[in-house]
Design a protein that fits this description.
The complex is a heterodimer of chains A (149) and B (202). Chain A is mainly α and 149 residues long. Chain A is 81% helix and 0% strand. In chain B, helix 2 packs across helix 3, helix 3 packs across helix 4 and helix 6 packs across helix 9. The chains are: A mainly alpha (149), B mainly alpha (202).
Chain lengths: 149, 202
């Protein structure tokens, strides 16, 4: 049996899981009034913690969630339609611009030097790469937080 | 993270039903898990209005993510994890303190002396019940003063009686950290309860 008083950590362990406690600790607590008193205090606390009243929602959570689910679906389809409209407007704008100013744009690109053209492309590709890396990082962060168990 | 052995057929059946469009099954899932969700939300969020929004948000997220649930844990544990992460995100957004360590060891000897005076063997059964009730009330107040993560861990381990493995899965904290936080939280609670008893001079 150990003569030194048992640490708080071991006393908690003794109260929670006496079977897996070392014999030295069990013997000491059984013989030492001070450690026994500490163990009894923890026993009382753990019992009180176990019997604490459990919190409950004072509103109808089920109703609230189910209404949210049914409200949610049309919003999603509206959002999808809006995205398609924006995409369509974008495509139309590009086509009209190409039709009206296509020749001017081709001439403009042909007239600038090769170095300037390379610089333009390099800058554009670098920007796209940064954006893509950022998007992947953000996606991984979100997925990591959800961790679909 | 270790795989939890909980391929519960009831969970699989309920998830299957929800995915095939049966909202009644989702209602059952809510009723089965709202106790755990309430424990986490009440311990981490103070404001009633926010509790309402967050708990609704938790189940909407669950509903949307249900096709991706792989049954590697109990459904309730997974919903607990979504709840914990949603609350954590809220607290981070509001820049609220998640954890403050006020673990004062200097009072240990004085507290041990009080602990020695709480001779539980010498009191009658009626006194014991009254005493336990008093401890329970003090404890309830003291738990509320703990940082959100400590409160949540105490509720999950002692009140909900979840295993360390389940708590690790819900919180994403390493098992050693969960045990350490629980140890510290209990120590703080013991100290606070004993201080309260010293005040009433037991």
């Amino acid at each position: 049996m150990t003569d030194e008083h048992i640490s708080d950590n071991n006393i908690q362990q003794y109260v929670l899981d006496k079977l897996n406690c070392m014999n030295d600790i069990i013997e000491h607590v059984d013989m030492c009034a001070s450690c026994k008193a500490k163990a009894d205090t923890y026993q009382l606390l753990f019992s009180a913690m176990k019997h604490q009243s459990k919190p409950t929602f004072e509103f109808d959570l089920t109703g609230l969630v189910l209404s949210g689910i049914t409200d949610h679906e049309p919003t999603n389809s509206k959002a999808a339609s809006f995205t398609w409209v924006i995409a369509l407007i974008g495509v139309c704008s590009i086509c009209v611009t190409g039709y009206l100013f296509g020749q001017y744009l081709i001439n403009m690109f042909l007239s600038i030097s090769a170095i300037a053209l390379y610089l333009l492309f390099t800058a554009a590709i670098t920007l796209i790469c940064f954006q893509a890396v950022e998007m992947i990082k953000r996606y991984k962060r979100k997925i990591g937080k959800l961790d679909f168990g | 993270m270790d795989k939890v052995e909980t391929n519960n057929p009831t969970d699989q059946y309920l998830v299957g039903e929800v995915l095939s469009g049966n909202t009644k099954a989702f209602e059952i899932i809510i009723n089965n898990t709202k106790g755990l969700v309430a424990q986490i939300v009440f311990k981490m969020i103070i404001n009633d209005e926010d509790r309402r929004d967050i708990s609704q948000d938790v189940y909407l997220k669950t509903f949307r993510a249900l096709p991706d649930f792989r049954f590697r844990s109990k459904l309730s544990t997974w919903i607990g994890q979504i709840t914990y992460n949603t609350c954590l995100k809220y607290l981070e957004k509001k820049k609220l303190v998640l954890l403050t360590i006020d673990d004062n060891d200097t009072h240990d000897e004085a507290l041990d002396a009080i602990s020695g005076r709480l001779n539980l063997d010498s009191i009658s059964e009626t006194e014991s019940r009254f005493f336990e009730k008093e401890v329970s009330e003090i404890l309830k107040l003291e738990i509320e003063k703990l940082p959100p993560i400590y409160k949540t861990l105490i509720a999950l381990y002692h009140n909900e009686e979840l295993s360390y493995e389940e708590i690790v899965h819900i919180t994403g904290l390493p098992e050693g950290t969960v045990k350490n936080y629980l140890f510290r939280a209990r120590k703080i609670l013991k100290a606070q309860v004993l201080i309260k008893f010293k005040r009433v001079d037991l």
